[in-house]
């Protein structure tokens, strides 16, 4: 099957080179996607030829496929860039390893199979989110294959290229990266380190600070956008007050990097460590001390959670009482449903339950108690509307937008006291779908188990989800499985 080509670079020589490379790679059996990203596609002229980021997704990775990708890359001449005297070099490692030498065109060739890309998205969301912005793609986009749902505060502590990863690299005076090793049993990623000379230590320091600020901007804004230089420093001043003293220093090392000078200030590494410490203090102060944590929880299972529509018009109790929480919440809110109030009372026996009708399950109207098959027979127009990505109301009841609207009203009224909120499946799907910017017609795919908690942080009048790695993987897997 011929892959669609959406590579449209404004520089003609870059366009010629990228298209030739993409088409060469696209001839290899099992290739799903070829994506060009980074400074090569984002900046004018021949900027970025020392680090042409190319991400290749294949169905299954073997040593034969890996070698074929390298061979397809070496077949492309730098003469297509108007640089006939340059040599082409392949960097097939994973990580920020660079080969910035005169006379070289360097293709940073990163090859993943479907499972490898999934693992990379879950472990390296900062990198993969940047890649998803690229529109220069042959075949499927990276987001269509396996998307980064969102950034969370914890990513700065537990993802690849976290604060501790950076501090370890700086302490070792080296950079960590990975490369494939193939054997008779398959392939694996092998971790390695490369010692950095003073020039590359300075460039790595720039990389660290730039990425931390840029990724924090994505977290705060809740969207994947690239800041202009003016926006970058304005955000830094507005949202990272503890790090403002480092702006002048960072501007100096940014200028040195831009001019490709080799002499960075002797205090570059110590200043970078100090910046990371200030950044970590800001994270802790903002997300642990100032932000208010609210735990939304789906009620315990009932005998009527049998595949039929269970909304507001039947009110069963739960089958098993959950054990009390180890830490008593300051407040508990509950849907009016017995299954929610019973769950709330069991979780925190001594806390007054504030019942709020805005937390009720969706009203299925006359569909209450019907199976999906029965409703499809009786009201085929509903399924036709859903297939068109519309949001029809259940007959005599509500639609998803109605539930989301009353949920948003409830959230807007939360104060600075941490709380437990016991509610329902559709309500929590609305919370997750909106918070993760998932298209509304896909919210019904979001899995929410009974007694599962979803953490919501409130900060300065805004809401931020704080999901566990397991929750992120389960939700993303469900969305991707539906596409397949």
UniProtKB/TrEMBL annotation:
It comes from the Bacteria. Gene3D superfamilies: Phosphoglycerate mutase-like. GO terms for cellular component: cytoplasm. GO terms for molecular function: phosphatase activity. SMART domains: PGAM. PANTHER family: BROAD-SPECIFICITY PHOSPHATASE YOR283W-RELATED (PTHR48100), GLUCOSYL-3-PHOSPHOGLYCERATE PHOSPHATASE (PTHR48100:SF62). This is Phosphoglycerate mutase. It comes from Nibricoccus aquaticus.
